[in-house]
# Entry
Amino acid sequence: MQTSPFNSNIRVHQKTRSQVHISDLSQRGSYILILDIKEQTQVKFRVLREQTFCPGRYAYTGSALGIYSTNLSHRLLRHLKGNKKKHWHIDHLLSHPNVRIAGIIAILSDQRLECKINQFIESNLGGAILVSGFGSSDCSHCRSHLLLLRNDVQTRTLLTKLRVFMPTVTVIEVAF
# Structure
């Protein structure tokens, strides 16, 4: 086992190539949910109204930078929870049976990096905006924090490219 340079409490498992279990992420940071949508899916939102999502692989960027109980572990476990109060756009999307989380990447940092990550995915991995305002209603930099990816973009590819793009922070795959 190798110790993470960000926090000595996180142990990075060499056998699983830098994968850490979701319950071990007591730090603050940003994250990417890799989503697979099986077929054309309509989802109703309070603010965005009804939206249609085409089948494919998506990347949603978010952050867990709150003071008290909002850390990466709490935020990610909430996203994985089936029955929850729908507070954010992503809650509505994740509640649909055609949508599944295929992978999670965590970026350990006290800085707000979700926009930088989102813009990197959009410009370097062919991320396309399908729903303006999704997850970015409080963001002045991004039109959406949900991007449709090319089908060949895998979690491992995204992880590798992010590590090169952000060498000063810990970027890890999350086991869930």
